[in-house]
Amino acid sequence: ARLKCRDVQLTQSDIKMVRLMEENTGQNVPYHQLYDLVPGKRLATDLQKGNFETNVRTFIKRIRRSFTDVDANFDRIENYAKFVYRWRAESAAE
Predict the structure, then answer these.
(1) Are 77 and 87 in contact (CB under 8 A)?
(2) What CA–CA distance (Å, rounded) separates 31 from 24?
């Protein structure tokens, strides 16, 4: 990924999550849709205990840090805790 002509260090799962949010700019993307992008076995206990929410928050935290490493003012990812993430549309000033 690139931001302001600089590389942003993201994993393949990070890229899939960013792409899904960006393709749905301004729309809610539920945690479970983001979690579905992570390869590997989904355990029933993850879903029952809400652990997938913790896993998604960990991914998003890493994604945000990767973008803020390039641009300290990065704020395109919005969150409604335990429900959805959203890629914020660019402001007119950007």
Answers:
(1) yes
(2) 14
Predicted structure pTM score: 0.81
Which DSSP symbol is given to 91? P
Both structure tokens of 80: 């409604």
**Is the alpha carbon torsion for 38, 40, 45, 48 positive or negative?**
positive
Distance, CA of 35 to chain centre: 10
| pLDDT averages per 10-residue partition of the chain, 94 residues | 75 93 95 86 56 86 93 92 87 48
Q: Do 73 and 67 touch, CB atoms closer than 8 A?
A: no
CA–CA distance, 77 with 86 (Å, rounded to integer):
6
> Taking Cα atoms as reference points, which of 88, 86, 75, 76 lies closest to residue 30?
86
